[in-house]
């Protein structure tokens, strides 16, 4: 019997990519799943695809505190409680800071960091009651600042520090607080990443076909939640980057620069 049978699992940002794969995986394990995103049509389509399963969908923008409150309350009204909250909804950016409108960084912080804080705030009492799990889907950019992604890195570092503090506060409550850093994973994230003017860049500068799939990433996250891990770094390149940055930071600066730049221009 699945460990997640009838458990209530909330995944923010379930209409695309890693979040959608997580929704599908937890449904297949018999969990009662809830998800939100801004694009209700995509959520509705997802629900239609899983009409025989327990899937609650809700249109919400996690950068808005009231949307998060309404979403989490709708989950509690529908299922009665929450066991697992996976703060997955996120957005990236690509532009050097000197050219970037502050609005780009503000939107990235509002969605990634504040969205995580808001959803956790409204779910925390139910999770404490159930000795459940709070997850932050962070990034390698939350261990190592990445050029062209200064706001994204800031948001992911902020989430990690915030979750580490929360983890310590909740140690005796039996709640597991964890953060998971995917490496490059094929999804929509680069297409909708904000450019210097806070508009979706509408392209990916990388070969998505060579990346880990969202489904594989979701499997890793699922297993980490099951084993109540503290943190997880994914992909060989991701692990290598975190290791290099910890022990050889000057070298990591140069290698990171080389990866993202060509002839002085940011190309990735
Ligand atoms: N893919 C990677 O290479 C990679 C690497 C490291 C970390 N991550 C992290 O993994 C998480 C999932 O990313 P992904 O790659 O699956 O990206 P994705 O394919 O672009 O999916 C992002 C999901 O988040 C939702 N979302 C975005 N902004 C939102 C908002 N304001 N309110 C509610 N939902 C919102 C999107 O739906 P709507 O647009 O409809 O709102 C979508 O469902 C993110 O936190 C990302 O930072 C991804």
Question: How does this model look, in words?
Answer:
The radius of gyration is 18 Å and the shape is globular. Helix 2 links the parallel strand 2 and strand 3. It has a single domain, classed as NAD(P)-binding Rossmann-like Domain (Rossmann fold, 3-Layer(aba) Sandwich). It has helices spanning 17-28, 40-49, 65-79, 102-129, 150-169, 214-226, 236-247, 249-260; strands at 8-12, 32-37, 55-59, 84-87, 133-137, 176-181, 231-233, 261-262, 265-266. The model has no long low-confidence stretch (mean pLDDT 97). With 268 residues, it is of the alpha/beta class. The strands form two sheets. The protein has a seven-stranded parallel β-sheet, with helices on both faces. Strands 8-9 form a two-stranded antiparallel sheet. The protein starts with 7 loop residues before the first strand and ends with a strand. Helix 3 (65-79) runs parallel beside helix 4 and helix 4 runs parallel beside helix 5. The protein has eight helices and nine strands. The structure holds NADP nicotinamide-adenine-dinucleotide phosphate. NADP nicotinamide-adenine-dinucleotide phosphate binds next to helix 1 and strand 2. NADP nicotinamide-adenine-dinucleotide phosphate binds at residues 13-19, 36-39, 42, 60-63, 88-91, 111, 137, 139, 182, 184-185, 187-189, 192, 214.
Features:
268 residues; globular; binds NADP nicotinamide-adenine-dinucleotide phosphate; Rossmann fold; alpha/beta; 8 helices; two-stranded antiparallel ribbon; 14% strand; seven-stranded parallel β-sheet
């Amino acid at each position: 019997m699945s460990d997640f049978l009838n458990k209530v699992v909330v995944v923010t940002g379930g209409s695309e990519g890693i979040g959608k794969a997580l929704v599908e995986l937890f449904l297949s394990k018999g969990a009662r799943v809830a998800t939100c995103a801004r694009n209700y049509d995509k959520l509705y389509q997802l629900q239609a695809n899983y009409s025989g399963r327990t899937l609650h969908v809700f249109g919400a923008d996690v950068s808005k505190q009231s949307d998060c409150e309404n979403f989490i309350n709708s989950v509690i009204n529908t299922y009665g409680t929450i066991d697992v909250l996976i703060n997955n909804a996120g957005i990236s950016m690509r532009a050097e800071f000197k050219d970037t409108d502050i609005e780009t960084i503000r939107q990235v912080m509002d969605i990634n960091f504040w969205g995580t804080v808001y959803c956790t705030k409204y779910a925390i009492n139910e999770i404490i009651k159930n000795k459940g799990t709070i997850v932050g889907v962070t990034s390698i950019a939350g261990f190592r600042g990445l050029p062209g992604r200064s706001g994204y890195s800031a948001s992911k570092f902020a989430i990690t520090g915030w979750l580490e503090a929360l983890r310590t506060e909740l140690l005796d409550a039996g709640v597991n607080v964890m953060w998971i850093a995917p490496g490059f994973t094929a999804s929509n994230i680069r297409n909708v990443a904000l450019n210097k003017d806070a508009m979706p860049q509408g392209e990916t500068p990388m070969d998505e076909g060579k990346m880990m799939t969202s489904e594989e990433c979701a499997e890793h996250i699922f297993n980490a939640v099951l084993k109540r891990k503290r943190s997880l770094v994914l992909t060989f390149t991701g692990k290598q980057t975190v290791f290099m940055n910890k022990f050889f930071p000057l070298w990591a600066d140069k290698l990171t620069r080389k990866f993202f730049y060509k002839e002085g221009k940011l190309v990735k």
